Amino acid sequence: MNREELKEKYGKKRVPHEWRKTDWFTTLVVTFFGSGMSPKAPGTMGSLAAAIVAYPMAWLALRLFGYYYEWNIPIIGYVNQVFLAAALIVFFVAIPFVKKAMKDTGTEDPGWIVIDEVCGIFMSLAFYPTETIVVHPWILAIAFGLFRFFDILKPLGIHKMEKLPGAWGVMADDLLGGFYAGLLLILSTYVIVTLIFAAAGIYNFIFS
Predict the structure, then answer these.
(1) Considering the domain boundaries, does residue 36 fall inside one?
(2) Whether the predicted pLDDT of 74 surpasses 60
């Protein structure tokens, strides 16, 4: 095995530098403050960064607005206006930056563009009460896992969204993935809570 083969197999993987062909502010936006520059699993790192940022967002929103920005819709449940607005704002604001980044670097949906994952994570929290997120931050871990599931496998029409032209396709599939993750998140927690109460009732019935 020659030197080049040894370097390829055992050498430290270098972070791709295509983003250097665009301006620093565009890079800052599309990599979500550099989280997409991770040499391994940049999409996961971007999603994780968004999930971490979501906690202080929820805490601040709860302190500033209380419950007045949440809609409690029958059957559907809560609609968290803060995270819904955050997801939509990120979606539309990111479009020109993603378009510019891909044009400047001559790439098509490169892994280091992770602002779409940020949009998806925020969307996955758009159906959850803010107080629950603040009191039980482990909810963010579940949202992260569910979103990554939909983002990687792209079922239920998510893959078709990628076929939209340019930056729209980059962003739209993650927005839809976040939507599915949010629905599954609220459904799964309702099931878990119901099972816990049912188990507690059975326990009290047997041992009381």
Answers:
(1) yes
(2) no
